[in-house]
Amino acid sequence: MTNNKKNDLYNILLGQLLSQDEGIDAEILSNSALNAIKFASLNRNFPIFSSILSKASNDLQRNNTSLNQIIFDSHFKNPLGLAAGFDKNGVGAGLWSYFGFGFAELGTITWHAQKGNPKPRLFRIAKEKAALNRMGFNNEGAKKFFKTIEKQKIPTPGNRPCVLGINLGKSKITSLYEAHTDYALSLELLAPLADYAVINVSSPNTPGLRTLQGTQQIKKLIKTLKDLPNCPPLLVKIAPDLSNEEIDEISRVVKENGIDGIIAINTSLNRFNLKKLKIKTGNTLEIENGGLSGLPLQERGLEVITRLRRSTNNDLPLIGVGGICSARSAWERIAAGASLIQIYTGWIFEGPTLVPDILDGLILQMEKHGFRNIKEAIGSGEPWK
Q: What domains lie within the chain, and their CATH numbers?
């Protein structure tokens, strides 16, 4: 089946649901998809499922060595990953390579299981290819996450078809003063499962969390985690709403304290030009709580990566996320300095074939610019042709 036909099928099944803000609740729809993914991941080695998944992967994967990189001591088959937030509990950890991803970031996981914020808390903004979420780190907790990954019998780090990162957050019931201990408990337990781990201090949906991006707080947190005997490569995920000066300061602090990379950007409290847009609640975005994601963040995501490339002196791996919904936006983020890129909201709206569409576009751009490997494109500043 061709990509176009598979896209037609996706649009027939889900297009009508995703093209309007009304209808099935966005969180219910996401959970339904995750339940199917969970079942498939647990049974992926059974002949009937193996056959189906093999056919799907033939369409969605791109096994082109020009996309290969070694980063964080891990082999990335391609630079495109699934961003944190979709597979919060790691139920599809054994499946993401079949969708064509080079890596997937699971979580956000907290030490204590928590229900998150009151529902409804996830809203489609279909016309703008955006979403508003105020989930509040809803997840089953680190201990349950460990068992979920074990049950799927996933190969150990370094032996996987898809690199797996684990995104860690602070439990809501834990004080900001004790945040470093909360993160450390999760990482100490989950480190053996992680190719890399992420300190999420930038979600707008946990009260006070973003204050941990401050110099003293982030230094204390990094030191606590880096001192763990089994700490994997450690990254920090930052907010899009920081000033340029704050971005420069975080860059300095993370470099001086041994952080291995930066992920930019998380969801935004900025409503950009959508303040007066009404969502399903009947209220405008201007007065609704939560973080905005998707296409409206594309320009800001590019600006932050460009700034980070400069402030880190080009020697720290960056992961670009936020508003990437096409091959062109993916290329622009890499050319600006991102070693890797992630998608989430764009993948929901565009469908599974967004992955091969992006990878095909990257391969074509490399050919047009005379690059033999994606590493040559990183920070090159070369335009989309």
A: 3-376 (3.20.20.70)
